[in-house]
Design goal:
heterotrimer; A alpha+beta (308); B mainly alpha (539); C mainly alpha (225); B: 539 residues; Cytochrome C Oxidase, Chain A; binds heme-A; binds dinuclear copper ion; binds copper (II) ion
Chain lengths: 308, 539, 225
């Protein structure tokens, strides 16, 4: 993997080689069309260059040819379909996140990154295990940012009003650049950090060294969630948190909803928006009481109550 | 023949007021030309500043704030003040009525008003330049644009006003094309420049109002906090992107269609050859204009819009490549069996075929859903749009200036200097922007003031350095052009009515044309490119 | 042959006799058709301008359906309906004014134009009362919103959209009034007749559009509950 490839950085993630295949396919096509057009233009321009006396003669009336025009409408059309389908397949690879991915929470603000790991560890560089899929769950505290790791071929905007996510799996230990690629103000160009890929065991060690007591369960009691939500599966005023994450829930209006991070966030900040079937809309809003990082811990806590 | 004693539109009537109050489309075109060239020089100044700063890693001579303002002003000036009005409002204004055999555009007063509105908009942009600049990027993305304390309001208000000038020009052109053609001229006897301008005008009329309302709401958000784009008030910042690109993607076709329109003229006239596939070229302009309305989401593949919309936008994006490809192949085939003069305009036209193809093909990389993930907001995009805007539109514009210069001013420029400067432009341009493709795919993000302390700093430095030197060569090229064009006004040889052997109406009147365009109402005797039936010297 | 000379003659006639013909047009018909197309295009841009706002409306209504329904109750349907009637009526009168001038009835045309303008003024007065009531209650856009009695989330967005749309529309009414006043004065000065009445017709077209937009605004803003 250390060799310099021609146009792209050496592929360092599993998706990168799939990416590169499409890239070089279009690259080849482009070179092909470019050579045709460039050489044709230059060749004709020289071959039919005006000579002395040409002003006296009429030029050819060659101005239409259905077969030719069909040729260069149909062939590109077919190629476009190929590129589209291929590109779409690749795109879907980016959006189907493996179920067993290690999850890391990313918070962006002007102009820094913060990475929070499942066990409460925090850092400003992104530390990930080698050979395991990693999911980044991202949100911003202010404006829009974007997280970009060129060697992994991944990029996703980080938005202030909701979570976005992306995943990758890197098979090589090492350090890689990580950039912010959405213009976010004065120090946009310094909102840069590194990804450090460690072997599975080194990663675990790093996590242990850096972890702090998870705050989610403390908050669960402090904010009084425990008065209505149990942890053992029994229903109370509100539904239990046990095994809540990842479920499908029936709502009073008859629709269903997947319990994911965005839904949890909404349920806490704006509980009236979606009411679970069988319960009353009595939950108070925590819009102005729970800050974003506490919200993250609570959500992590609820997620940790899911049994494999 | 050109004759000094004859009254032409330049010399008659005289006096500054006769220019400021003129209703003559030719004079308004020249006034636009002066204004947009000034804008181009300003934009170019900022561009050179950017390139100097990026020459080496680390801070060179400006801090981050200044850099951010430089690229914003560079982009905004180049887009709103230069490229969008450039070809339609300057050359189009001059040529369109002449080509149709009309005495003027349909609404001369509206035409003059559009110039004043343009100047007013430019004043607002200047105001924000001098009141500390703007640092949002030319895209004004919320919520950053609603939070920053720089003078976003006057800039967006300026862009809002400029929109009206664009709409006025658009309305004028559509009506002129529909109602003012010379007696007997059917749609398929119009020069292709007219077709291209017509398609452009359609976009101007249909897309600009939406930008207007979006910018207005952005201003209201900033002034009044109406909460539509502000996430803290239940608004959605991504919505702004949708509305912005709903205009700004069609706007890129406002930029390129007139360029393509010029290329059709240049190639046919300087190859003295009937254009290949007239109808397809005409239809494809309209097709591009219409399709261009449904692809805006390809700027937002990583913004978190739904995968389904991304899919639709990508699909339609590719369909724009097809009519564009048709045009390029048709132009290339037009050369076959022609009688090609290697004049300066023709060199620009040939360069257009090569450079725009590079720009267009790299657009396909960006339009492919998966590929855009790596390339979005990197220098690959920067290289793409400079290849289409600079390598496409600006090159075509330069070709058009050289092509119609003799008609506008009645004087020939120095052809050898023209070819000489062309070499600078061609080489400098490729040096500046070709390596930016590599820079981008290697991961260099755009809108970065500095690239030191990256793992790839060395690699980036090589590409950036090359690019900066290229920009200087490019700058020299423009200075040469400026010099010999200005010189030609004083000591250029008289051009004659038809120096290139064109068959369209504008070449049948004197150079410069009289105020009323034609001494006698022109009568259509042949198609615009009938080089197989008529010799230019016979008309 | 005969036909050709007739056309020629027609042209010469117009050139010499109709002072309303601008120099760059061949004849009155070309001029009239051009202006008409131009005004239609202008109306298209107006529709798109409002179209942008209608999109915002649709998007936010889809996101906050209950809020829209709850907050919408605070608008005064009676005043809205009154204004709708006033505008529909003024559409009729403006059409009648065109008819009158086509029949060279200058006096009637002036009268109908005057009624139209008065209707526009009534519309604005009613809007003024509506607005001041809203302002009084703190039902204002965005961060100025100051009404604690509403349970639904983000009610300020409804008022951002309400004031945005009706405000822009009111500006158009104002513009229309100014233009129609100018037309009225010119009509009074006998500038128009059955042979040339393009400005009256164009003013009418514009006025119909402004009415039409209100016809959409009224149910969308006032009647969704
Ligand atoms: C003149 C202006 C212009 C033109 C004409 C184009 C033309 C095209 N553009 Fe470009 N574009 C811009 C100006 C322009 N663009 C700007 C300014 C931006 C960035 C804005 C910003 O973020 O600041 C941008 C950004 C941009 C993006 C977003 C990138 C990103 O931010 O991630 C995309 C993505 O799809 C794109 C695609 C295309 C495509 C597919 C075309 C097509 O129209 C190209 C069609 C042409 C060809 C395809 C070549 C000829 C065809 C053939 C030879 C036939 C055979 C071809 C094949 C079989 C492939 N452009
Ligand atoms: C028409 C559009 C246009 C044109 C022609 C150009 C021309 C150039 N552009 Fe620019 N560019 C944009 C539109 C354009 N650009 C846009 C929209 C952006 C995005 C901004 C953003 O991110 O928000 C951008 C961004 C951009 C960047 C990226 C900045 C960043 O992301 O950090 C860079 C960097 O190299 C750059 C460089 C250049 C250079 C070197 C030229 C050169 O080609 C310039 C050459 C011109 C000159 C050197 C001037 C010479 C003139 C004279 C000497 C006087 C002559 C006078 C008369 C004729 C009267 N441009
Ligand atoms: Cu954060 Cu750019
Ligand atoms: Cu686009």
């Amino acid at each position: 993997m250390n060799e310099r490839t021609f146009n792209l950085p050496p592929p360092a993630s599993t998706i990168a080689s799939e990416y590169d295949a499409l890239f070089y396919f279009i690259y080849g096509l482009s070179v092909f069309f470019f050579v045709i057009i460039c050489s044709g233009t230059v060749f004709f321009a020289i071959k039919y260059r005006a000579k002395k006396g040409d002003e006296e003669k009429l030029t050819s009336g060659f101005c239409h040819s259905t077969p030719l025009e069909l040729l260069w409408s149909v062939i590109p059309t077919l190629l476009m379909f190929v590129i589209f389908v291929w590109g779409f397949k690749l795109y879907m690879r980016y959006f189907v996140i493996p179920a067993n991915a290690t999850e890391i929470k990313v918070t962006a603000w002007q102009w820094n990154w913060n990475f929070t790991y499942g066990e409460g560890a925090q850092s400003n560089v992104l530390v990930v295990p080698k050979g395991k899929p990693v999911k980044l769950l991202m949100s911003s505290n202010d404006v829009i940012h974007s997280l970009f790791i060129p060697d992994f071929r991944v990029k996703m905007d980080v938005l202030p009003n909701r979570y976005s996510s992306m995943w990758f799996q890197c098979d090589y230990e090492g350090e890689y650049d990580l950039y912010c690629t959405e213009y976010c103000g004065q120090q946009h160009s310094t909102m840069v950090t590194r990804v450090i890929v460690k072997s599975e065991s080194d990663y675990q060690k790093w996590i242990e060294e850096n972890s702090v007591t998870p705050a989610g369960d403390v908050l669960y009691n402090r904010y009084g969630c425990n008065t209505c939500h149990s942890l053992d599966g029994s229903a109370n005023n509100g539904p239990s948190f046990k095994n809540l994450f990842g479920k499908k829930k029936m709502l009073t209006d008859g629709s269903t909803v997947d319990v994911d991070e965005n839904y949890l966030r909404e349920s806490i900040l704006n509980p009236q928006a979606k009411i679970v079937k069988g319960y009353e809309p009595v939950m108070p809003t925590f819009q102005n009481t729970i800050s974003d990082d506490k919200l993250d811990s609570l959500i992590l806590f609820i997620k940790s109550l899911k049994e494999e | 023949m050109y004759n000094d004693t004859e009254k032409n539109f330049l010399t008659h009537p005289k006096g500054i007021m006769s220019w400021l109050l003129t209703l003559d489309h030719k004079r308004i075109g020249i006034m636009y030309l002066a204004a947009i060239l000034a804008a181009f020089a300003a934009g170019g100044f900022f561009a050179l500043g950017l390139r100097l700063e990026l020459l080496n890693p680390g801070k060179q001579f400006m801090d981050q704030d200044t850099y951010n303002k430089f690229f914003t002003l560079h982009g905004a000036i180049m887009v709103f003040l230069f490229i969008i009005p450039s070809i339609p409002a300057a050359l189009g204004n001059f040529c369109l009525p002449l080509m149709l055999g009309a005495k003027d555009v349909a609404f001369p007063r509206l035409n003059l008003a559009s110039w004043y509105v343009y100047m007013l908009g430019a004043m607002f942009c200047l105001y924000s330049l001098f009141s500390g600049g703007v640092d949002t990027g030319w895209t004004f993305y919320s919520p950053y644009s609603t939070q920053t304390s720089t003078s976003v309001i006057s800039m967006t208000f300026g862009a809002f006003i400029l929109g009206f000038s664009s709409i006025f020009t658009g309305i004028n052109f559509i009506v002129t094309v529909h109602k003012m053609r010379a007696p007997g001229m059917t749609w398929y006897q119009m020069p292709l420049f007219v077709w291209g301008s017509y398609a452009t005008a359609m976009i101007q009329v249909l897309a600009t109002p939406v930008l207007g309302i979006t910018l207005l709401l952005l201003i209201m958000e900033k002034v009044g906090g109406i909460g539509i784009f502000d996430p803290e008030m239940g608004g959605d910042p991504v919505l702004f992107q949708h509305f912005f690109w709903f205009y700004s993607h069609p706007a890129v076709y406002i930029m390129i269609l007139p360029g393509m329109a010029i290329i059709s003229e240049l190639i046919a006239v300087h190859a003295h050859k009937k254009i290949f596939g007239y109808r397809l070229i005409a239809y494809s302009s309209v097709a591009i204009a219409l399709l261009g309305f449904f692809v805006w989401g390809h700027h937002m593949f990583v913004s978190g819009q739904s995968e389904f919309s991304s899919m639709v936008f990508s699909f339609i994006t590719f369909f724009i490549g097809i009519p564009t490809g048709i045009k390029i192949f048709n132009w290339m085939t037009t050369l076959v069996k022609g009688s090609i003069c290697w004049t300066t305009p023709m060199l620009y036209a040939l360069a257009f075929l090569i450079l725009f193809t590079i720009g267009g093909l790299t657009g396909i990389f960006l339009g492919a859903l998966g590929l855009d993930i790596q390339l979005h907001d990197t220098y690959f995009v920067v290289a793409h749009f400079h290849y289409v805007m600079m390598g496409g539109t600006v090159i075509a514009f330069l070709g058009g200036i050289h092509h119609w210069w003799p008609k506008i001013f009645g004087k020939m420029y120095n052809e050898n200097l023209g070819r000489f400067a062309f070499c600078f432009i061609f080489v400098g341009f490729n040096m500046t922007f070709f390596n930016q493709f590599m820079l981008g795919s290697q991961g260099m993000p755009r809108r970065y003031h500095d690239y030191s302390n990256f793992l790839k700093t060395d690699l980036f430095e090589r590409y950036h350095g090359f690019s900066s030197y290229g920009a200087m060569i490019l700058g020299v090229g423009f200075v040469i052009i400026l010099c010999y064009l200005v010189a030609s006004l004083f000591n250029g040889k008289p051009a004659g009515n038809n120096p290139w052997g064109g068959l369209t109406f504008e070449w049948s009147t004197t150079s410069p044309p009289p105020t009323e365009n034609f001494k006698d109402d022109p009568i259509l005797k042949h198609g615009p490119y009938d080089y197989d039936k008529v010799l230019p010297k016979d008309i | 042959m005969e036909n050709a000379t007739q056309i020629e003659l027609g042209r010469v006639n117009y050139h010499h006799h109709n002072p309303n013909l601008a120099h760059h047009f061949h004849d009155m018909e070309q001029q009239h058709e051009s202006i008409k197309l131009g005004v239609w295009l202008f109306l298209v841009t107006e529709v798109l301008l409002f179209g942008g706002l209608f999109c915002f409306y649709a998007i936010y209504r889809a996101w906050h359906p209950e809020m829209f329904i709850e907050v919408n109750q605070l608008l005064d349907v009676k005043l809205g309906a009154l204004n709708t009637l006033v505008l529909i009526f003024s559409s009729v009168t403006v059409a009648l004014s065109i008819r009158s001038i086509q029949m060279d009835n200058k006096k009637q045309a002036v009268m109908f134009l005057a009624i139209t303008i008065i209707c526009a003024a009534i519309f604005l007065v009613v809007k003024y009362f509506e607005y001041s009531h809203k302002i009084h209650e703190g039902l204002l856009p965005g961060k100025y919103f100051a009404n604690p009695d509403i349970a639904a989330v983000n009610p300020h967005i409804f008022f951002s959209i309400y004031f945005g749309m009706t405000g822009l529309h009111a500006l158009h009414i104002l513009g229309g009034m100014i233009f129609l006043t100018w037309v009225l004065i010119r009509t009074h000065m006998r500038a128009y007749s059955s042979s040339y009445y393009t400005p009256v017709e164009m003013g009418g077209l514009y006025w119909h559009l402004v009415d039409l937009i209100w016809i959409y605004l009224f149910p969308l803003l006032y009647l969704i509950g």
